[in-house]
Amino acid sequence: MLHRKRSLCCNLSTGHRYLVDDRAVFVQGDLGNKADLEPIFEKYPIQAVIHFAANSLVGESVVNPLKYYQNNVAATLTLLETMLKYNVKNFIFSSTAATYGIPNVELITEDCPTNPINPYGRSKLMIEQILADFASAYGLNYVVLRYF
Ligand SMILES: NC(=O)c1ccc[n+]([C@@H]2O[C@H](COP(=O)([O-])OP(=O)(O)OC[C@H]3O[C@@H](n4cnc5c(N)ncnc54)[C@H](O)[C@@H]3O)[C@@H](O)[C@H]2O)c1
Predict the structure, then answer these.
(1) For residue 33, how many other CB atoms are within 10 A of its CB?
(2) What is the pLDDT of residues 69-94, one digit of tens each?
(3) Is residue 45 part of a domain?
(4) Alpha-carbon distance 55 to 99, whole Å?
(5) In total, how many domains does the chain have?
(6) Where is the NAD-dependent epimerase/dehydratase domain (predicted)?
(7) Centroid of ligand 1 to alpha carbon of 43 (angstroms)
């Protein structure tokens, strides 16, 4: 989440607290938990949210899709709902090249069809579709980055 002094909300399910820059405000919390999110939006004048948090192991997503739809889709919905409540309308989303599946072209461009082949890729594509709907309905400004 961004305001002039950057604030960061993470549950540390992966990653390390010591890697967070000292200039950032760090809050250990879960995006799926409104009780963790709302105090941050209350306290800081957040202008935009950069959303990196996810589970992102393709193999694990095949074995345990519930974890992926719960954490990547449902928790992101809670974040988006909280943003709307606090009138934060700018969102940058970490999606994935896994949304493309296995394209039959060598050079993948942004307008290649999406056809994810695993729950991880599908969970990210679902959020992309939700973002498009939120842009139409609520005026959300968003950018999607499909990292390779
Ligand atoms: N690393 C890559 O090559 C790659 C490629 C494509 C897309 N991405 C995407 O980029 C983003 C970051 O990837 P990464 O490799 O840095 O992953 P990572 O696992 O290192 O970092 C994800 C962070 O999100 C946190 N997190 C997960 N669920 C959370 C929740 N519900 N609430 C709060 N915090 C939560 C974890 O604790 C972790 O610190 C992810 O969204 C991932 O899908 C990464």
Answers:
(1) 14
(2) 999 999 999 999 999 999 999 999 99
(3) yes
(4) 15
(5) 1
(6) 13-148
(7) 25
